């Protein structure tokens, strides 16, 4: 699949990598299309840059990543609750948040080749010499470009009907903070978690689903007493790191990056990004930010509503500080795809079958948990396999495949990241046992049908990546 080409370029794509056994963005993009993880938006019309569609396997993977995050951030904490705020918000929200004024990227155009660049992503010498990094032509002056998508609500298209597509989910949380305290009797410290779409008119939409105009975020805002913010900031850094460890991500592919003075948002006291080593290099995956009392103070000022927290136990009132953990869901999908991607040599016959492509997803994230495969279609094996599949369906995401040689079918499941295959053969008819095949080791064991569900549950719980 062709990577989406924006008419706007930058150095964001990094060096191309290739070679057997290595994950490259090209291979991942092509596997994603071939197997129905991600398709280019509006492909039959030539594609829409900055937007992607999640196919049957992709939506399952995305949903499982979202569910893992939701469990981690809500179910495992008494003091964190969920929210699903609207995408369309009162335009004053974005004035209060500072987005109308400051949510901009610096933009330069080449007068000759007409390519467009993010000024902070091209070499400094090109900016000072005003030379296009692509063709050497003259660059325009740098100008500010606001990333918010604007539209109109109602029939009139005037400034009174102006409305924005939210560029982040966080503001929906801040404007509901009082509602949630009142309806759920929350006491500080407490958090509000939200998963939802966000939209940014990104100048650069390269690298597949890494940076897109429409994407999804996983955000949790934690409200704390001023003075305890540094402690909570460190605590959330620890917790977010441990979360990726639990997901089974290659930990040597993750690192912290602290925002320097030139990167730190003016309202932030401290900020760290968790970066992942994508095929194009280290890139941000998630941010952990100490946002101080900036957001709630600004909303107090702009809405005229008192957003102080009243601590009845200590007869105290204050504007809470906010510790934010903000990750991209769609960027996490890309990270998990890159992290899981493996090419393994399994034979030395000198043909294409020597290698297998395998997605080593954690079983909790795999789109299909178990595939049921009859060795043959005939002699009642297909019917028996269908019967076993129906039994497994209630507990697991299953697939059924009866077409082609069994080795080929295993490869297809490896490529989809299915951690377990159950094969039904003649012995299954006689003894009631089935073959359980493991994706990672390719080992096979015989299991009694009656014990299959329990065994699969145990394997999922105790899964360790090899
Ligand atoms: P970047 O520097 O990559 O543009 P950011 O610092 O602007 O990101 P935040 O505003 O902190 O990002 O957003 C939080 C998270 O949302 C990011 O860590 C990233 O995972 C995700 N994200 C932000 N912008 C995009 C985008 N255009 N496409 C996909 N995911 C995004």
Structure in words:
The protein is α+β, with helices and mostly antiparallel strands. Helix content is 30%, strand content 26%. The protein has 14 helices and 23 strands. The protein has helices at residues 25-34, 56-75, 91-96, 99-102, 124-129, 170-175, 177-184, 229-246, 294-303, 329-340, 381-393, 406-416, 426-431, 452-461; strands at residues 38-40, 52-54, 80-83, 104-109, 116-118, 143-146, 150-152, 162-164, 190-199, 214-224, 254-258, 270-278, 281-290, 309-311, 316-318, 321-328, 341-345, 355-359, 370-374, 398-400, 420-424, 433-438, 444-448. The chain has a seven-stranded mixed β-sheet, sandwiched between helices. Helix 11 (381-393) links the parallel strand 19 (370-374) and strand 20. Helix 2 packs across helix 10. The longest helix is centred in the first third of the chain and has 20 residues, at 56-75. It is globular and about 75 Å long. The structure holds adenosine-5'-triphosphate. The site of adenosine-5'-triphosphate has 16 residues, from strand 10, strand 13, strand 16 and helix 10.
